[in-house]
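Please describe our next protein:
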Amino acid sequence: MALSQRITTLTGGGSDGWDLFLKARAMIADGIPVTELTIGEHDIRTAAPILQDMHRSAMGGHTGYAMVPGTDALRDQVARRTTERTGVKTTRDNVLITPGGQSALFAAHAAACDPGDVALYIDPYYATYPGTIRGVSAIPRSIQTRAEDAFQPRATDIAAAAEGARSLLINSPNNPTGTVYSRATLEGIAQVCTDNDLWLISDEVYDSQVWEGEHISPRALPHMAERTFVVGSMSKSHAMTGSRCGWLIGPEEAIANLITFATHTTYGVPGFVQDASVFALSQGAPFEAEIGAPFARRRAIAQRVIGAQNTVGLIPAQGAMYLMLDIRATGMSGDDFADALLEAEHIAVMPGESFGAAAAGHLRVAMTIEDQAFEAALTTLCRFAEARAT
């Protein structure tokens, strides 16, 4: 029996970007020790008080079907956090609770795009973006940014690609580059969306991890609330990756229709996970700062290590838990460099090419291991690059 094109063409006929990661995991399974700097998985676990609250909720009986839009308590908590951080009045009617940020991305594109519509996204991009767009039978169209611009997108480039499009997906703080979009960048994006009647889908799962500059949600810009979806998640801000709890914020009418969509797809998020998320969010910004502190600390380590040599370049790491390293001085592609580094030094990093053409000749390094081990791995990486510099 033939399978649908929808699921057989998700990667566009190429790699899904995870080849190096899977190779490293296969080495580990074979007993070969590998230093993993690949995925955005905290080196700390979910905090014990959050797990204790989750346990309390489950043992208290919140294990049946939860309300599909999310519990009132969690939708209210997310709305309150959003209002406080962005200044945009937000209520539970603007919030849909989803099984993680990825589910929210899918729902947002399902709301914005009909089959055959063009959906724009910025390159470099998180690896699932084009597949998510194909998953709703829309057509992905990338807009390349430039390393010399620190990967800030240019409004003129977006405008040149916007004809016939229905949506634009952005991500700030950015995975994989660590770039935080400036106010000028976001105002240019907002103008293009208004001029071309685009839905803006803003992935803000790293909003609590800003090391330089400020996080500005484009939903807070003039006339943008009615055309913006915001994706959020407990995964990065609260080290709850495995709990799979996220949200989508949007106009009331859109969220009302997306509740129907969720009824026919995910059917909600476990109640005990939602209760634990309410507890976690109630700890406020200081707790989120505590979760992010290791990445700010390791960013400083990286600046020191990379500043001591001249082969590897560091794209300004303004936010999130990643570094984007420029290794073009070696004359190697990111794919070849990452593969050679894994084979020779047993250090796994993600090649820039996993995240799009704009990141060719770069590496994404996740700052997700203990400080001393991180510094040692980064030092080895720089030494490895220096030996191959052309």
Observations:
- The two ends are 52 Å apart (CA to CA).
